[in-house]
Amino acid sequence: MKQKEITLNSLLNEDTIDLNMLNSEEVGNDHLATSMNTPLRADAFEMDDETKIQKIEQHFQSIMEIMGLDLTDDSLKGTPHRVAKMYIKEIFSGLNPANKPKIALFDNKYKYNQMLVEKDITFYSNCEHHFVPIFGKAHLAYISSGKVIGLSKLNRIVQYFAKRPQVQERLTVQIATELKKVLNTEDVAVVIDAKHLCVSSRGIQDTNASTVTSFYGGKFQNAGVKEEFLQYIQLKTEL
Ligand SMILES: [Zn+2]
Fold first, then answer.
1. Which of 159, 168, 169, 178 is catalytic?
2. CB neighbours of 143 closer than 8 A, spacing ≥ 6?
3. Is 130 a catalytic residue?
4. Domains in the chain, start-ordered, CATH in brackets?
5. Which residues 6+ apart lie within 8 Å of 63 measured at CB?
6. 130 marked as binding residue
7. Partner of 125 for a Cys bridge, out of 134, 155, 189, 203, CB 3.0 to 4.6 A?
8. Is 127 among the annotated ligand-binding positions?
């Protein structure tokens, strides 16, 4: 399997990447992220979910009609509403901060001070440039600073940030930033290995390519610690 790895530490402290040299079409075609924050307008959540679903339904119906589809057909009739509901309630529900998982931490009673690795977290996201799926595995690790997190919460953090129109680099950094914040430590690592349907099912149609992105914070920048983590997840990448 071909993999290209992108390490994102250098991007984390820069809110904006200088893409002035590129026009928006090139940015989208090359799947570059312009910002580590999801580009949202200030009024993004003034409209309630039900109104959003209604409006998207109308627009999606127009798209289907423009393409010449017969919406009186029983199989297609319900599609605009299904798509609208799926967008708001499921696959893009992570845009809304109200859906952010509540994280409870526990005292590290066992004084476990080694790295904790949660690997092979399956996620489904969508490319913000084509609105087709990105899916793969996320591998997370941290070294406790005195508190520990419920394992299912690591999974929930991944799912929350995946349920947005995304680029893989931003997904990686958003997960790492959230882990650092909730665990109150710099010692976190995130590796994401994913396939992009916009690469395999259209465009260049490369079905074997997968993209690896990584973030190594604090102690994980130490070569030995990083190697231990990569051995646990058994992902041998050129670093
Ligand atoms: Zn794409």
1. 168
2. 113, 114, 115, 116, 185, 187, 218, 219
3. yes
4. 3-36+103-233 (3.30.1130.10), 49-95 (1.10.286.10)
5. none
6. yes
7. 134
8. yes
